[in-house]
Amino acid sequence: MDCVDAGVTIATVETPPVRGPNGASVVLQVSSSDDYSKDSHLCMADYKLVFTPANGAPVTVDFLAADDDYGRKLSLRLDGFSQDGKRVLGIISESTKTPYTFLVDYHTADGSVQLVDLAKLFARALNAGCEPAFGVIGTTASGAIVLELDSPKACASNGRWLVDPAGGNPRRLPQAASFLNLYNGE
Fold first, then answer.
1. 113-117, strands of its sheet edge to edge
2. Which of 136, 144, 159, 183 would be a feasible disulfide site paired with 81, CB 3.0-4.6 Å?
3. Tell me: the pLDDT tens digits for 71-85?
4. Is 132 within a domain?
5. Closest to 50 in 3D by CA, of 76, 75, 83, 17
6. How many domains would you assign to the chain?
């Protein structure tokens, strides 16, 4: 969606619910509104996850607020749960003057959210002005996240990459390497 224009109070969109292997579900939401700063002409985008355990009440986790230009594109996608149901993975991005894309890594046990700045992490693999599409496709037994990088303009090193949320440079996934596909019981 576009970050709301000055005539609208609040706009909200959310992903379709994603179901986990244990019956839990989650949605990712973004709400946008005027930031109400005098003469700033900026729009605030608030991101949150709503996690519903199999036998419990929904838990809302606010994890990011971004204040930038009106009219910028806000994009969000949930790719799925890890096979063990302990993590939910997705991607959010904004098309600002300096576009950014974050990997969202939600831990169901403690409700924490880790954000990984993919534009920064992949800066060496992307040409200037390149805006590739990232998708989470799985995890490894050691906890690394497997991303699919695709750039229609061929301005990036397309293919599968390993990302360790704890840090370090992304690594190409060897062609013969195995990984656990995400669970997405829609």
1. 74-81, 87-94, 100-107, 113-117
2. 183
3. 667 889 999 999 999
4. yes
5. 17
6. 1
